Amino acid sequence: MTRLILFNKPFGVLSQFTDKNSPTQRQTLSDFIDVPDVYPAGRLDRDSEGLLILCDDGRMQARIADPKFKLPKTYLVQVEGEPDPAAIAGLRDGVRLKDGVTRPALVERIEAPDLWPRDPPIRVRKTVSDCWIKITIREGKNRQVRRMTAAVGHPTLRLVRWAVGDWTVDGLAQGQYTEARGS
Q: How many domains does the chain have?
């Protein structure tokens, strides 16, 4: 039976178990997860937070991470400014990036979610407003959500992956993990 771990990755943690290339020893998965023979199914950038799935089955890892399987990934995104309907429509329809146009996404503006505090907190500027949007994509270009919001004029301030397929980080404290059922 496949072993599946859902981890609520904090900001600043690498999505790998070692950090051999850094003289400063950044935090890695091994600082939080003591489960043998599991590996990340995909990546979550060091400056992003939220759901990271680990498992012990290579085929399951591929099914979760590989864009060809089109598993939806949902992000809660705090952006700079207040996106107008044209910006939201642009995100929904697909955004032209240097490596091509993104596939259509599900996008909606949401109220500020009740999340754990980020450490360090985002920089707040009194003269620049911000808001939250929820974006669901079915592909995985490098730093895609950040590049999409920047392309429509609203840089990402905070990015939390909330769900991958039916798996979610809901109810899981930051830095904690739980075992889940594979499918």
A: 2
Determine if the pTM surpasses 0.90.
yes
Q: What is the C-alpha separation between 4 and 40, in angstroms, rounded? A: 10
Kindly state whether residues 77 and 160 are assigned to the same domain.
yes
Shared-domain flag, residues 82 and 159: yes
Among candidates 84, 103, 83, which has minimal Cα distance to 93?
103
115 near 182, Cβ under 8 Å?
no
pLDDT digits (tens, 9 = 90+) for 121-168: 888 888 889 999 999 999 888 899 999 999 999 999 999 999 999 999
CB 54 within 8 A of CB 65: no
Range of the domain at 9: 4-67+166-180
Catalytic residue among 19, 31, 45, 130: 45
pLDDT band at 23, cuts 50/70/90?
A: confident
Concerning whether 114 is annotated as a catalytic residue, the answer is: no
Q: How far is CA 66 from CA 103, 139, 161, in A?
A: 15, 8, 16
